[in-house]
Design goal:
OB fold (Dihydrolipoamide Acetyltransferase, E2P), five-stranded antiparallel β-sheet, 2 helices, 10 strands, Cold-shock DNA-binding domain protein, NA-bd_OB-fold
């Protein structure tokens, strides 16, 4: 039986089905989805893993990869899972919207107002940028985790949020979460200047 080694996930792209693991000795190993154990379909950057090193066509690779210290999925992985499952329309998300206080009722089978699918553009902002810190709800997360949109309270429309404002908590952000933002007007609409969870 091959000896098991340990390392940390450097990165993994669920859509491309591969990534790299950095061994505790400092080597970089290719890992493909088919090499993941325990029925896993992806890995999260920073997870601790154990694996067997095998010789692949282009060098050493990780095989029989088992996660020893799991981390929550990133927004990119959650978006991937939602697309694989056919979209974001769970009753959990609808309950969150009810608590926020401005969700419209929906009929069975009707598309939800807040989704991580293609963005609806029926809340376009016109006028001056609102001042102060506003309550908002996460409306859309880019599958690559580069940006998201939040819907502002009091019918102020939505605002673009660049990943630099949420990278530090990206593994915890979900569509439907309530946040607080300050915004300013840009040539493409409202843009968040600050973001609090």
């Amino acid at each position: 039986m091959n000896e098991r080694s340990t390392g940390t996930v450097a990165w993994f792209d669920p859509e491309k089905s591969y990534g790299f693991i950095t061994t505790h000795a400092g080597a970089s190993l290719f890992v493909h989805r088919r090499a993941l154990g325990d029925g896993r379909r992806w890995l999260v950057e920073g997870e601790e893993v154990s694996f067997v090193v095998v010789r692949g066509m282009k060098g050493d690779e990780a095989n029989d990869v088992l996660v020893t210290s799991a981390l929550p999925p990133t927004p990119r992985i959650r978006a991937y899972e939602q697309r694989e499952a056919g979209g974001y329309s769970s009753e959990r998300s609808f309950e969150r919207r009810d608590r926020f206080g401005s969700a419209r009722p929906s009929q069975p089978g009707q598309r939800r107002e807040w989704s991580n699918g293609p963005r609806e553009r029926n809340r376009t902002f016109t006028g001056n940028a609102p001042t102060g810190v506003l309550n908002a709800r996460v409306d859309y997360i880019d599958p690559q985790g580069r940006f998201m949109f939040v819907a502002l309270s009091d019918n102020h429309g939505d605002a673009y949020v660049h990943s630099t404002l949420f990278n530090h908590v990206s593994n915890r952000v979900q569509v439907g979460d309530t946040v607080r933002v300050s915004v300013s007007a840009s040539d493409r609409g409202l843009r968040a200047n600050s973001l609090e969870f």
